[in-house]
Specification:
The complex is a heterodimer of chains A (77) and B (176). By secondary structure, chain A is an alpha+beta fold. Chain A has a single domain (5-75), classed as Translation Initiation Factor IF3, CATH 3.30.110. Chain A has helices spanning 18-28, 45-56; strands at 5-11, 35-40, 59-66, 69-75. In chain A, strand 1 (5-11), helix 1 and strand 2 (35-40) form a beta-alpha-beta unit. The radius of gyration of chain A is 11 Å and the shape is globular. With 176 residues, chain B is α/β, with parallel strands linked by helices. Chain B has a single domain (23-175), classed as 3-Layer(aba) Sandwich (Hypothetical Protein Ychn, Chain: A). In chain B, strands 3-2-1-4 form a four-stranded parallel beta sheet, with helices on both faces. In chain B, helix 2 links the parallel strand 1 (23-28) and strand 2 (52-57). Classes of the chains: A alpha+beta (77), B alpha/beta (176). At the A-B interface, helix 1 and helix 2 of A face helix 1, helix 2 and helix 5 of B.
Amino acid sequence: MSATIVTTLDMKGFACPLPIAKTAQAIRELAVDDLLEVLATDPGSVPDFTAWSASTGHELVERSEEDGVFRFLIRKG
Amino acid sequence: MAATAEAVREATEREARHVPHRRLVIMAWSGDLDRVWPTLILGTTGAAMGMETTIFFTFWGLFPLVKDDVRITGDNWMQKLLSTMDRPGLEHVKLGKMNFAGAGPAMMRKLAKEHHVASPEELIELAKDLGVKLVPCQMTMDLMGLHREDLIDGLEEPAGATTALLEAQDAITLFI
């Protein structure tokens, strides 16, 4: 199964609550099972995206970090 | 440090799996920037999390909803005096402490811009877009002589305490 990333949301440099709020806006435009990639530098986004995923039912498929950039891969639920 | 961060993460995940409240109600009582800001941050976040979110604006909390270009509000001299002493509009909100005749809020907004923190103006637009219900308190409007046309667009119909408390049932309720 190789799903492709439909949209990438670049939230690098932005502080709470923008990464989550903009993600909520972006995911509305997607279809169920579409993948959304979010890039962020706010360290608070790590617990926030986990909590957001659990709360909304959109699955956090992947979570990684490279050079201070957090990458979240979300499947629309 | 790493262990602490991991513990926090685990606790967050554990907490996040258990979400009993699906509704958020905020009573926005204050017109101070340092309260208006967290009100809008929590409101937009609640909506982003899929919570049905309502903010009731009452007392001083109503003045930030006045259009920035409306200088004087009120029908009689007492109500007019209020708006003269304390200029309404989101652009003109003051800090609860360290206001320094407006220098405090200006510096706070500058810092926020540098740190890419959304401004209250940006947050209120986000809130509307995410479906946050922004409800002005009818009683305060009457008391302070505020009219619907004095207030910004995109608000719900003015309502009273009964509506606020009805909405607050089974909701997380914050008084800010």
